[in-house]
Amino acid sequence: MDITTIAKELNLEIRSAHDRLKNIVTGGYTGDLLSDVMANSHAGDIWITRQVHQNIVAIATLKEHAGIILVNSCEPAKDTLERANQENVPILVSRAGAFELTGKIYNLLAIDK
Amino acid sequence: MCAAENILEKHSFVIEGGNFSNAGTVSTRIKSILKQKQLPDDVVRRSAIVCYEAEINVVSYAKKGVITLTITLDKVQIEADDEGPGISDIELAMQQGYSTANQQIREMGFGAGMGLHNIKTYSDIFDISSEVDKGTFLKMTIHTQPVKD
To answer: pTM here?
Structure first.
């Protein structure tokens, strides 16, 4: 399942890397502690977080995440967006909280398999 | 065989303490070098994790640091040598959850007390030495081939 499909299904707003929305999402990880995400997430994951600073782009790049979704309508910082566009990392924004969004994406990915 | 003869590549990168805007760039660079060498995915993944944690430690606590990547025939070695406050109790610092990070660092999602623990977990060999008010030296070794007895 690609980012575009998830964005449509869950009414997510796209904030960066509009040309990378065909990135395939193979799993997901939810967390705000960067060492936890670094150690436990995988390539192809969609990362669900409420951190908005530019270091999230470095992690998503390093871990080869499919993209990042910010929860609770949190908006990425200006330098985060600039970095995300440079590094081609899609950042999306959800009105839902982390629990609800994680559950919905988990179910979408389960149906897809 | 002399160890020096085994070296395939060696790269050093300077890291500026306190500069969070560039945090992760050295790790990203090192990861791409390891991928170019077509090392196993697991080696690349573990190297990226330990390198990132070491890089974040320099940015969070030190004045400056140098990260050196050495690739030999049978291992990846990443060294992080910083000029900083040092660690007075290494055993305590290694405990998961222990951190001396300030509030600003914690709010960014760093400083959870997982860094050194992750480094130990994902390295095959991990050495650490430190001197208070001087700095800290980390050496992480990841084998690229099964170790023979």
So the answer is: 0.92
